[in-house]
Amino acid sequence: MTTATEYFDRMAGHWTEKYQRDGFFRRRLETVLSWFDGEPAASSILDFGCGSGVLMGALLQCGRTVTGVDASPVMIETARAHLKSGAVRGRYTLELIDPEQFAGRYLTTVYAGVVCLGVLEYVPNASTLLARLGSVVAPGGVLILSAPNSSSLLRMVETTVYKHPGLFKRVPLFAHLTGVDTYRRFQTHQFTLSQLSRVLASAHFQLEEARYQVAPPPLQALDRHRLIGMTVLAKYRKAHLEIQMPPGNRNAASDGRDLTVCNNARR
To answer: Exposure check for the chain: N or C terminus, fewer CB within 10 A?
Structure first.
């Protein structure tokens, strides 16, 4: 059976083109870059599921240090070629990782920001991946995610078309869903924003910004509505954890007793 990794191996040669001809890919890229505008300059960023390296290149041009990881060996080689091809300058690392365990050298570093776009829906255990990514975000750092929006009425239509391809094969609008190599074969999850936020709250993350995006041309003006936009894009901030001493006992930290942990989210 074809796996999601093999699917993205096949897509790698055309992935960069999506940022040139697909309005959603461009808007998502622009949104993510705008969300990093207010973050400290020259910070280190992890791009988990870096694909062909387009976001990595844009972050490098903004002065960031970037680590890109992906489970697709062809995507990693495509990203390497893209980053070596010309104007991109900066410090970066590329790493091929296991698609099920998410293990790799990237886990030995703490990052000011982690980006995970279009990945959660393809992994067997999204909660495990979120916990892994959350653990490498520095206190006060950001985690930016995108995922299919299960609240979207358009996602419900998409699911109907995918499950009944014979009824829609002659409709050009649905050709990307009725073919043998549709991405829906490999998606295992869809999410609401509240589901993502609940999982991340346990790891001390607070939602800062969210946008809904993606709709066919007749509905694009409405895609920011929760019931229309097919994708949710969210930015979370990891809390600072401060150890506070009990009044009158400033030596309490030395023996580990009577410590209170407070979450103070940076705004």
So the answer is: N
Alpha-carbon distance of 180 to 7, in angstroms, equals: 11
* Residue 170 counted as domain residue: no
69 near 104, Cβ under 8 Å?
yes
Whole-angstrom CA distances from 155 to 23, 159, 193 are: 18, 6, 14
Task: Copy the structure tokens of residue 202.
Answer: 């346990």
Range of the domain at 36: 4-151+184-241
Q: Which two tokens stand for residue 134?
A: 């959350």
Structural domain includes residue 27: yes
Cβ-contact 117, 143 below 8 angstroms? no
Element (H, E) at 209: strand 205-213
Count of domains observed in the chain? 1
**Phi, psi dihedral angles at 209 (to 5 degrees):** -145, 150
> Which residue matches tokens 């109907």?
160
116-174: pLDDT as tens digits: 999 999 998 999 999 999 999 999 999 999 999 999 999 999 999 999 999 999 999 89
